[in-house]
Design brief:
With 300 residues, the chain is α+β, with helices and mostly antiparallel strands. The chain has four helices and ten strands. The chain has an eight-stranded mixed beta barrel. Strands 7-10 form a two-stranded antiparallel ribbon. Strand 1 (80-85) and strand 2 (92-96) form a beta hairpin. It is globular. It starts with a helix and ends in an 11-residue tail after the last strand. Residues 1-31 and 33-45 have low confidence and may be disordered.
Length: 300
């Protein structure tokens, strides 16, 4: 029987994991791909040099490393389901999920190995189905903290885009960043996937944007409201026939500058649409700033 390319990649990656273990390399701490340079250096003076990696080669190398890291982490924690990476940020880590109703609290203050950690980790809603693009939920929801801390580990109680975990999503409040970083790379063990951002917004929790498997009418309403709330009008068509990725975190400010005490009932959300496996990725995308855009994106 002929093996699929994905299965061959899985087998090769597993062999590498076991080889690392035999050589004394700890698979609990895989070295993630360099976020700024997943496939090696490219000489900007010679972008057409055939010896340099193409964009497609860089993407394949990134996805290969994501898979290897995911499999390595799964050896330490069976809750491991995939890997998330966003260019231009520090979001480059494993995603975990429990398979029982824990009200999404188990990983709230634990890292991806299940150890106590105030920064938590990236974890999917327990209700989400994982797998390949056909079996995953309509709405894959991933949570991560925005602790309101700066790079010196000091609490600032503001939306600080260079903080840890999903504080990095605040960079999407910058128009130029949003244009030049339109893709989120979230892949499962079963399949490599690329998602294109179509909405960035603040909302209160009365908006049930975290429902993983809504009926079509409800899903269409969810998508429309997300786009209506978005800081930008993206040139991205999305409907109930699509699969989406929802990244959700807390916030210390609203778009109008209102300060919030923590905890509160408001959230900051980035939504992206699953692209076809053969989609052509662009360097930049077009968007239009809306009236919902933050008056002070830096959150100071």
């Amino acid at each position: 029987m002929k093996l699929t390319t994905r299965l061959l990649a899985l087998l090769l990656a597993l062999c590498m994991v076991f080889a690392f273990a035999a050589c004394g390399k700890d698979p609990a701490n895989p070295d993630p791909v360099d976020p700024s340079n997943p496939a090696g250096p490219v000489d900007p003076a010679n972008p057409d040099d055939p010896t340099q990696p193409t964009k497609e080669e860089q993407l394949k190398e990134l996805q290969k490393t994501m898979l290897e890291n995911t499999l390595a982490m799964q050896q330490k924690n069976k809750d491991t389901i995939g890997w998330i990476y966003i260019d231009g940020t520090t979001v480059n880590d494993v995603v975990v999920k429990v398979n029982y109703n824990d009200d999404n609290k188990y990983y709230l203050s634990r890292n991806a190995l299940g150890e106590n950690d105030k920064d938590g980790c990236y974890y999917a809603d327990w209700r989400c189905k994982t797998g390949n693009r056909n079996s995953i939920s309509k709405n894959t929801v991933i949570y991560g903290h925005n602790k309101g801390r700066n790079e010196n580990d000091n609490y600032t109680s503001v939306n600080y885009p260079n903080g840890p975990k999903f504080a990095q999503l605040l960079k999407y409040q910058d128009e130029e960043f949003a244009k030049t970083n339109p893709y989120i790379y979230y892949s499962t063990i079963e399949e490599d996937m690329v998602w294109q951002v179509f909405a960035v917004f603040y909302t209160d929790i009365k908006f049930d944007y975290i429902e993983p498997n809504p009926a079509d009418a409800t899903f269409n309403s969810l998508l429309k409201k997300a786009q209506d709330l978005s800081f930008y009008n993206y040139d991205v068509e999305v409907s109930s026939n699509d699969k989406i990725l929802t990244l959700s975190t807390c916030t210390y400010r609203l778009a109008d500058g209102t300060k919030l005490h923590y905890p509160n009932d408001y959230r900051y959300v980035v939504m992206a649409k699953l692209l076809p496996a053969d989609a052509v990725l662009e360097d930049t995308v077009s968007l239009t700033v809306t009236k919902n855009a933050p008056v002070n994106p830096a959150g100071e």
